[in-house]
Structures are given as structure tokens and as C-alpha cells.
TrEMBL record:
Belongs to the class-I aminoacyl-tRNA synthetase family. Glutamate--tRNA ligase type 1 subfamily. It comes from the Bacteria. It is found in: Cytoplasm. One of its GO terms (cellular component) is cytosol. Keywords: Aminoacyl-tRNA synthetase, ATP-binding, Cytoplasm, Ligase, Nucleotide-binding, Protein biosynthesis. GO terms for molecular function: ATP binding; glutamate-tRNA ligase activity; tRNA binding; zinc ion binding. The lineage of its organism: Bacteria, Pseudomonadati, Pseudomonadota, Alphaproteobacteria, Rhodobacterales. The keyword Cytoplasm applies. Residues 20-321 form the Glutamyl/glutaminyl-tRNA synthetase class Ib catalytic domain. This is Glutamate--tRNA ligase. ATP binds at K257. It catalyses: tRNA(Glu) + L-glutamate + ATP = L-glutamyl-tRNA(Glu) + AMP + diphosphate. Catalyzes the attachment of glutamate to tRNA(Glu) in a two-step reaction: glutamate is first activated by ATP to form Glu-AMP and then transferred to the acceptor end of tRNA(Glu). Gene3D superfamilies: 1.10.10.350, HUPs (3.40.50.620).
């Protein structure tokens, strides 16, 4: 498992000369969600396309739910998707002392205060406010209290947020989003046990990591209003925010398991190549003109925040299959074999042997032209993966009656010394067919049965070329008894 290290405070402000720095900050409580994968991709494209840095932070402060296995699953998912990050992943939990340090700085400069209110007192305040029709936003009586009145009791550190005016998020996707300050509470920075809250830790981490652009889901939009107040309290430059709409299902509702696969690992197991997923996810909520199909170089050149729409994107499996077929068809054969290896590893299928790869490789040009997914390609390439004797399905058995076997015997004899080229193979089969008054289709059926054991296959001549002379003749001879 990759090392997670404790980041040290860098202490530099953001300037116009500094390179772009983005980050992806998942919580390690489960698999990498398809929405999280898209967020990571957007951050990666924006940084890499501008010669900047893409950083990874594991937000593991929820110790009860965070697991090493989930962290490993996230890193594995990003690696499969082809996203590299700079440096080692940062553990948010390991930075808790730095978070506390900043909170104490805020206490010292008057932008935070000690609050001794108990949970019972806070709940009583809210119940009374609700009964009187007032805002239930808690207003601590300790905000401006004299330190001399402090009791010897547990306390939290709260942000002394402005009560008047507005907080404006200048969002690169959503535009200016305004929040009234009287609708934002004095959020807790440090709990009574001295541990930081997530809202506070995120700001400190992003500042210390030098993050210049925060690209994340729009479910964090309200968080941004409160987090900006911490930046202001510390006198730190505010990064560029870009809150992207979430992904919905085909019915327009929030994506869930009822819509199909939601974890990135599920898409890998379904046999969509990583290149296709990058293309599809990039286009899911972002556009560059009418371009639907593009490679990594184009995505890196084109991607910008202005191309991200405000409306939720909808997952469309038919479109994903179209994108997948485009990339499979254009993939170099060695790269395609590597994708097949990764797919079989993901599904815990046995790795292809060197002989299987040797037979499959020459057939890939024909197979990949029609396949939408890797399983579909392997299904058509089944003939190259099986060993003798070939097991025949019901339709293949029917195609090898006594008459067909006799014709197959003649063809086997004719193929013994023929040049092993498509033209010559086809000419030999045609000559046998002409002698019996049969078209190539009638000759192909028993050939297909003998070579693949099934009725749906690539061209019989493509199979023969891929299998080679010796294997082809051996499979034919097996059916002649």
C-alpha cells in the first residue's frame, strides 16, 4: 500500500506566477464512486493541461469508517483510470496537530473564540427558537464573553464569523453565489477533545498544499461559503472554486445502485477500457463544441472550467458503449492486450497464456472493429483461447453432418500445401464449394464449427490465419475422426 505521509506547512501565498495546483480528496470509506472518479479526472486534466500539479489527499479523519482497504481501492481505481499524482498521498488525520495550531492562531488573532456551551444548552436554544419562530442557527453566548468569566470546563473553538453582510463565492462554474452571513453559523473548528472538524481541516490542508483551484461537486457549495471565512480569518488567498454538478441516472434522479454500476471498479469489471472511461467521464458534464470522441492529448488541450455545464449530467450506458467501441477500434494491439490483461485480473479470470495471446494477436484487427467492450471482443475471439479438442455446441454439431464432414475432408486435403494467405485459403474453399455446387456460406458453416465449436464467430479465413496452418489442420482433422 502506498505510503501516506505527514505534509509539512509550506507557508507560501498563491500568486499569479505560481503553477496551477489541484487536488482530489476522497474519504476512504468505500470504493471509488464514478462521480469521484470524474472529479479526479477534471482536476487531473486541468492541472496536467497547464503544466501544473495534481495532488492526492486522503481525508481519513473519520477513524471509525476509514479503512486501509478503502484507501487501497481508491488508489487502485485512480491508477487503473490512468491518473498519476504528484508526490505521495497526504493523510489528513496525520495533520491534526497542524489543524489545531491554525485554530489556536485564530483564537489569538480574535477570529475564533472558546465556547463552553453544552449539547443540552445548544439543543435547548434551538427548541426555544423553533417555538418562537426564530432562526434555529445557534448563537453562542460565549462569542464576546470576558475571558475572566470562563469556567473550568470543556470547550470547543468556534469561528467568529461575520454576522452582517454577505459571503460571495466567485465560482468558475456556478458564477457568483451569495450567502447572507446571518444564515451562516459560528462553526466549530476544534472539538472539546482537541480534534479538528472536517470543515476546518480541509481549508488548512488546501492552503498548506498550495492548492490554487478547488474543483469538486456542487454538494460542497454551502461548505465553500463557510470555508472562505476561514481563509479570510487567516489572511490567506482564496483559491479558485469550481463546483461541478453531480451525476444523475437516466431518470434524472441522483445516481444510485438502481441505475447500474456506480463504482469505478464495476466499470473496469464490465470491460470498458480506461481510455474510453477517461473520454466518457470527461464529456459527462463538460463539452468542447460538438466533440464527443477524443483522445487524451485533445482532452488535455481542450479542457477548461468554462466548458463545464451547470445542469447535472446523466449517465448513459449506450453512449458509453459507443465511446468504448471507438477507443477499442483505434487502440494499438499491444495496448489492447494490456487492457485485456487488466480486465481479466479485475474479474479474477486466468491470465491469457503466451499461446493464447499469439493466436489472438493477429485476429485483433478484425475483432476490435466491431467490439464495444472487452468481454464482447473476447467472446468473438473465443476460438483463439480454446484448446483442442474443440468442444462443439448444439448448432455446430448440426453443421457437421456426414455430408459436411466429407466436404471438410476434401478441404483439409486441399489445404495441406496451399499458401497460407487469405486469398489462397478463400480460393481453395471456393473451389471445393464449386465442385459440389455450393456457395462459400455452405462451406463456411462446417469450417466454423470445427475451428471454434460455435456458430457465431469472425470470418473463417480470419480464424485460420490467426490459428496458423498446424493448429487449423489439427482442428479440422479432429472432426474427421
Amino acid at each position: 500500500m502506498p505510503t501516506i505521509f505527514k505534509l509539512r506547512y509550506q507557508g507560501f501565498p498563491m500568486t499569479a506566477e505560481k503553477p496551477v495546483v489541484t487536488r482530489f480528496a476522497p474519504s476512504p470509506t468505500g470504493y471509488l464512486h464514478i462521480g469521484g472518479a470524474r472529479t479526479a479526472l477534471f482536476n487531473w486534466l486541468y492541472a496536467r493541461g497547464r503544466g501544473g500539479k495534481f495532488l492526492l489527499r486522503i481525508e481519513d479523519t473519520d477513524r471509525a469508517r476509514s479503512t486501509p482497504e478503502a484507501t487501497e481501492a481508491i488508489l487502485k481505481g485512480l491508477t487503473w483510470l490512468g491518473l498519476d499524482w504528484d508526490g505521495e498521498p497526504v493523510s489528513q488525520f496525520e495533520r491534526k496537530d497542524r489543524h489545531a495550531e491554525v485554530a489556536r492562531e485564530m483564537l489569538a488573532n480574535g477570529t475564533a473564540y472558546k465556547c463552553f456551551s453544552t449539547q443540552d444548552e445548544i439543543e435547548a436554544f434551538r427548541e426555544a427558537a423553533k417555538a418562537e419562530g426564530r432562526s434555529t442557527l445557534f448563537q453562542s453566548p460565549w462569542r464576546d464573553a470576558d475571558p475572566a468569566s470562563y469556567p473550568d470546563a470543556p470547550y470547543v473553538l468556534r469561528l467568529k464569523a461575520p454576522r452582517d453582510g454577505q459571503t460571495v463565492i466567485q465560482d468558475a462554474v456556478q458564477g457568483d453565489v451569495t450567502f447572507r452571513n446571518d444564515q451562516l453559523d459560528d462553526m466549530v473548528l476544534l472539538r472539546s477533545d482537541g480534534t479538528p472538524t472536517y470543515m476546518h481541516a480541509v481549508v488548512v490542508d488546501d492552503h498548506d498544499m498550495g492548492v490554487t483551484h478547488i474543483i469538486r461537486g456542487d454538494d460542497h457549495l454551502t461548505n465553500a461559503a463557510r470555508q472562505i471565512q476561514i481563509y479570510h480569518a487567516m489572511g490567506w488567498d482564496v483559491p479558485v472554486f469550481a463546483h461541478i454538478p453531480l451525476i444523475h441516472g437516466t431518470d434524472g434522479k441522483k445516481l444510485s445502485k438502481r441505475h447500474g454500476a456506480v463504482g469505478l471498479h464495476e466499470y473496469a469489471a464490465l470491460g470498458y477500457p480506461a481510455a474510453a472511461m477517461r473520454n466518457y467521464l470527461a464529456r459527462l458534464g463538460w463539452s468542447h463544441g460538438d466533440n464527443e470522441l477524443f483522445d487524451d492529448a485533445q482532452a488535455l488541450e481542450w479542457f477548461d472550467l468554462g466548458g463545464i455545464g451547470k445542469a447535472p449530467a446523466r449517465l448513459d450506458f449506450k453512449k458509453l458503449e459507443h465511446v468504448s467501441g471507438f477507443h477499442i477500434a483505434r487502440m494499438e494491439n499491444d495496448a489492447l492486450l494490456a487492457e485485456i490483461d487488466a480486465f481479466r485480473a479485475e474479474t479474477e479470470a486466468p491470465a491469457l497464456t503466451s499461446i493464447q495471446k499469439e493466436r489472438l494477436l493477429p485476429a485483433l484487427d478484425a475483432l476490435k472493429a466491431k467490439a464495444k467492450t472487452l468481454p464482447a471482443l473476447l467472446e468473438q475471439g473465443h476460438f483463439a483461447l480454446i484448446e483442442r479438442p474443440v468442444e462443439l455446441d448444439e448448432k455446430s454439431l448440426a453443421a457437421l453432418d456426414s455430408v459436411s464432414r466429407g466436404i471438410l475432408g476434401e478441404l483439409t486435403a486441399a489445404l495441406q500445401n496451399v499458401s497460407w494467405s487469405r486469398d489462397d485459403l478463400e480460393a481453395s474453399a471456393k473451389a471445393i464449394g464449386d465442385a459440389h455446387g455450393l456457395g462459400l456460406g455452405k462451406i463456411a458453416a462446417p469450417l466454423r464449427a470445427a475451428l471454434a465449436g460455435r456458430s457465431s464467430t469472425p470470418s473463417v479465413f480470419e480464424m485460420m490465419l490467426a490459428l496458423g496452418r498446424d493448429e487449423t489442420l489439427a482442428r479440422l482433422q479432429d472432426q474427421l475422426g
